[in-house]
Amino acid sequence: MADPTDGAPGHHHDAPVPGGIAVDERLNSSGNAIVRALPPELSERASELFKALGDPTRLKLLYLIAESNTSEICSHELSVALRVSAPTITHHMKKLAAAKLVNREQRGKWAYYTVNSDEFNRVHALIHEL
C-alpha cells in the first residue's frame, strides 16, 4: 500500500543514522524535533558520563582538578584535600578517566591528573544550566 503522505509538502521520511537508528526530522506540536532513540555508541557514552557525574565525590574531584593552580594534581593531594583514602580516590578517578573528563599519567607510585578542558567545559555549562 502506498504512503498517502508520500510527496506531500512538509512530510519528511526518517533519516538513517549510524547503528540503524532512525531520527524523525518532523517537528512535534511544540516545534521541537521528534526524538526516538540514540545510537548505541552514544547511549554508552552518555551513560558513562552521567554515571561519572552522578556521585558528589567525583564532582568535587573534577572541580578540584579543574581549579588547581598547577596544570596537574597528584592523587595524594586529592586524598588529603577530600580526607578520603587513596583506594577511594583511585576508584573515583578511574570513573572520571573512563568518562574522558580527566587525563591520567602514572609516575612511580603516584598518579597525576589533568582536566580534559573540552569535556569539562561542556559539563560545567550543563551544570550551570540547572
Question: Could you provide a short overview of the structure?
Answer:
The chain is an alpha+beta fold and 130 residues long. It has helices spanning 40-53, 56-66, 75-82, 86-98, 117-128; strands at residues 15-16, 22-23, 73-74, 102-107, 110-115. A hairpin with a 5-residue loop joins β1 and β2 (22-23).
Could you describe the 3D structure shown?
The structure is a single chain. The protein contains five helices and five strands. It has 130 residues and is α+β, with helices and mostly antiparallel strands. It has a domain of 75 residues: Arc Repressor Mutant, subunit A, CATH 1.10.10.10. The strands form two sheets. The protein has a three-stranded antiparallel β-sheet. Strands 1-2 form a two-stranded antiparallel sheet. A hairpin with a 5-residue loop joins strand 1 and strand 2. Helix 1 runs antiparallel to helix 4, helix 2 crosses helix 4 and helix 3 packs across helix 4. The longest helix has 14 residues. The protein is elongated and about 55 Å long. Keywords: DNA-binding, Transcription, Transcription regulation.
Helical stretch tally: 5
SSE-based structural type: alpha+beta
Secondary structure tally: strands: 5
β content, as a range?
5-15%
Region (Disordered): 1-21
Domain HTH arsR-type: 38-130
InterPro entries: ArsR-like_HTH, HTH_ArsR_DNA-bd_dom, HTH_MetalResp_TranReg, WH-like_DNA-bd_sf, WH_DNA-bd_sf
Keywords: DNA-binding, Transcription, Transcription regulation
What characteristics describe this protein?
single chain, 130 residues, Arc Repressor Mutant, subunit A, 3-stranded antiparallel beta sheet, elongated, disordered N terminus
